[in-house]
Design goal:
CATH class of the largest domain: Alpha Beta
CATH architecture of the largest domain: 4-Layer Sandwich
Number of domains: 2
Helix content: 40-55%
Strand content: 5-15%
Shape: elongated
CATH superfamily of the largest domain: Metallo-dependent phosphatases
Structural class: alpha/beta
Length: 437
């Protein structure tokens, strides 16, 4: 039995060293690569390396968050040093166990000594049971079952290897490619009472860019260039521009100044903007002269100008505060808007469509534009999107949905959160053309 013991020993050592290597890599990513990324160094490469570290750290992070230990040890929406070290140690244990199991499945131990003993026993029993005859001596050896048909162990090993390879390729493709293959979606939306002078008004919605350790400014520039190429009349930004550090706020807002729209750019904040720093976000938007209309509004006149005061005719673009971190003051955003004036509502979170005071008020809304859900980021065949960050499940995952008050369009957004992966849920630049109903 010496050979199997040696095989098990190398697997155990390989699992421990592999787990240690993953832990060291996560340390390097968090302490070196992410600060370099924040300074703008080699962002396209570092974004992928940080994404890999993020995925490797996720099991421990998920467990600590599930038992609410992170919330206990850390400030809101932050991970304290103590919580980080607990996650790191927990990941060492989890990866050691996972790698050990993986190695045992992919490289099963063959018990050569046991096979030899079993073959000798079978041969001996056959010799004793068969009559001693020179003619039968050539048939005394019974072939091993493994030579007749594939063993169950071989079948499971092959299946496990295929499953591991498929999972690795899927995760790699989702991280490296699908997170960067944004789609431009187009639709027309009819609005009652839209003035003929505003017919064909082209709106481009950008949302959930989540510029952070897993995204480079080069990718943001690609999205902005594609947006400008659409020659939009209005560009509506519906929140979550940064992720995991306030250091990313100023760089991405400066990139927003490169957006070109015939009429203008209007924006609201999302929950991540609040978590990183809502005051700094407002300061950067003000410095860039990009209007934030959280619980406020702007108007598009008949001659396609963006103004602060109601012109009596035209289109109202209203915005509300973030559903999670701010107040929903739709009454303030829609104050003194003429009853016959069409109005759009910008909200980062689509759950605002079900906000009880809004539903009870019966206020006219012709279309709500939202983001936040990312389309679920991952869509599994035959299952769908297992996790959608909405109180109403997959209803507001993506696309045009009829809410209690008005239609709601939910863009799949550009970036990622929780995990830097997208599977069968492409990033989206949404183009909506308004026409009279």
């Amino acid at each position: 039995m010496a050979a199997p013991i040696r095989n098990f020993a190398w697997q155990r050592r390989a699992a421990l060293w592999g787990s240690f290597a993953i832990g060291v890599y996560c340390l390097i990513a968090d302490w070196i690569l992410q600060p370099l990324h924040q300074r703008g160094w080699y962002q396209p490469v570092l974004a992928q390396l940080n994404s890999l570290s993020w995925i490797a750290s996720f099991p421990g992070y998920l467990i600590v968050s599930h038992i609410r230990l992170r919330e206990t040890l850390s400030p809101p929406h932050r991970t304290s040093t103590l919580a980080w070290w607990i996650i790191w140690v927990l990941n060492l244990v989890l990866w050691a166990v996972a790698l050990r199991l993986l190695l045992r499945v992919i490289f099963p131990v063959k018990h050569d000594d046991d096979d030899d003993e079993r073959n000798l026993t079978i041969t001996a029993e056959s010799d004793s049971a068969a009559p001693a005859s020179a003619d039968d001596s050539s048939d005394a050896t019974i072939p091993s079952p493994s030579k007749i048909s594939p063993t169950r162990r071989a079948f499971l090993t092959t299946t496990a290897r295929l499953a591991v390879a498929t999972a690795a390729v899927t995760v790699g493709h989702s991280m490296l490619f699908e997170t960067r293959w944004f789609e431009i979606t187009r639709r027309r939306h009819a609005i009652r009472g839209l003035h003929p002078d505003l017919a064909g008004l082209r709106i481009v919605q950008l949302t959930d860019l989540h510029h952070g350790p897993a995204m480079s400014l080069n990718y943001v520039r690609e999205v902005i260039a594609a947006t400008n190429a659409l020659k939009p009349d209005l560009i509506l930004l519906t929140g979550d521009y940064v992720h995991r550090s306030p250091a990313y706020i100023d760089p991405i807002v400066r990139e927003f100044t490169e957006l070109r729209a015939n009429i203008g750019v209007v924006s609201v904040l999302g929950n991540h903007d609040w978590w990183e720093s809502a005051p700094l976000s407002r300061e950067c938007f003000a410095k860039a002269r990009l209007p934030l209309i959280d619980n406020d509004r702007r108007f598009v006149t008949r001659d396609r100008k963006l103004v602060d005061v109601s012109p009596g005719e035209g289109l109202c673009i209203a915005g509300v505060g973030d559903y999670i971190e701010d107040r929903i003051r739709f009454d303030r955003a829609l104050r003194d808007v003429p009853d016959d004036m069409p109005r759009l509502l910008m909200s980062h979170n689509p759950d605002v469509a079900e906000y009880p005071p809004l539903v009870a008020a019966g206020t006219r809304l012709d279309l709500m534009l939202a983001g936040h859900t990312h389309g679920g980021q991952i869509r599994i065949p035959l299952i769908g999107t297992p996790i959608v960050p909405s109180r109403f499940g997959s209803k507001y995952a993506s696309g045009l949905v009829q809410g209690p008050v008005c239609p709601v369009y939910i863009s799949r957004g550009i970036g990622t959160t929780v995990l830097p992966l997208r599977f069968r849920v492409a990033p989206e630049v949404a183009v909506i053309e308004l026409v009279p109903a």
